[in-house]
Amino acid sequence: KGKAKGQKGRKITLKIAKNSIRISFDGGRRLDLSKMGITTFPKCILKLADVDELDLSRNMLKKIPSSIQKFQKLRWLDLHSNQLEELPEAIGMLQNLFYLNICNNKLTTRNLPEELNLLKNLRILNLGLNCLDSIPTSLGALKELKEIGLFDNALTTIPNSVRKLPKLKKLNAKRNPFPDSTKEEQHSDSIKRIETLYLVQEKDLCCSCLKMCQDEKDKLNELKNVTPSPSKKLSFPLLLTPNSSAKDNQEEWRLR
Predict the structure, then answer these.
(1) What is the CA radius of gyration of the chain?
(2) Which residues 6+ apart lie within 8 Å of 90 measured at CB?
(3) Does 27 score more than 50 pLDDT?
C-alpha cells in the first residue's frame, strides 16, 4: 500500500495552491509548488493562470499538459529536476516567457517541440542534464537569448545558429562528448566579450586613485608580457549543475 501511495503522489488542492503563491523579488506573483511530491500536473492550478511565475521544480512530473498555454502572463517557468520525457507543443504559446529552466529531466532531442523557437522573448534557457544528442538549429530564432545551458548531455556539436545568437553572453556546454576538448572550449569561447571596460576618464580621478590604477595596469601588462595567459574555460554561475539534491535556495536559479 505504501508503494502505491508513493507512486500516486501528493494531491494538490486549489486551497494548497492559493497558499503557495509568493511575491517574487520584482513584485510578481509566483506559484511555488516545488518539492511537493507531485507526480501529475495539478489541474486545479489552471484557475490561477494569471500568475507571473510558476515553479514546479523538484517533483516527479513526467508530462506537462497542453493546458499550460492558459498561463498567458507567465514570464518565468521552472520545471527542473523532474522526470519529463517530453514537452507540449503548446509551450510555444507562452509569448511572455523570458526564463525557462527544464534541466535535470529525461528530455531527448526528438521530444523537444519545434515550437520552442516561438518564445521570442526568452532570455534564459536551461537544457542541461538531459538526454540531448543534438540541438535544433531552429533555436537560432531566439534572438533575445542571453544565456543557455547545455551541460551534461550527449552533444557532439552545437549549431552555428545557436552559438552566434546576437545577444548570447553565456553558454555552458561542459561535459558533453565533443570530438576533442578544443572543440568544447571553442564552443564557449566563440562568444565575444568585452575584456576592458572604462567607467571614468583619467581627468576625473584624483592623483592617488590615478596612480593606483596605473600601477595595477602596469602590473597586468608586465604579467602578460612575461607569462602567456593560459586559455581559461568559462564559468557560468547562473546556469548551475544540480547534484542529486538540487539547490534549496530558489534565488540561486533565478536571473539576478
Answers:
(1) 22
(2) 66, 67, 68, 69, 115
(3) yes
- Say if pTM beats, i.e. exceeds, 0.90: no
pLDDT tens, position by position, 61-84: 999 999 999 999 999 999 999 999
Residue 10, C-alpha cell as written in the block: 501528493
Torsion (CA) 102, 108, 109, 114 in degrees, nearest 10: -60
C-alpha cell at 213: 590604477
What's the angle, vertex CA 247, arms to CA 244 and CA 250, rounded to 5?
150
Identify the three-state secondary structure at position 211: helix
- Residue 90 contacts residue 111 (beta carbons within 8 Å): no
The model's confidence at residue 216, banded by pLDDT at 50, 70 and 90, is: confident
Residues 6 or more apart from 214 whose CB is under 8 A from it?
Answer: none
Which residues pair with residue 100 across a beta bridge? 77, 125
**Angle value at C-alpha 207, between 204 and 213, nearest 5 degrees:** 80
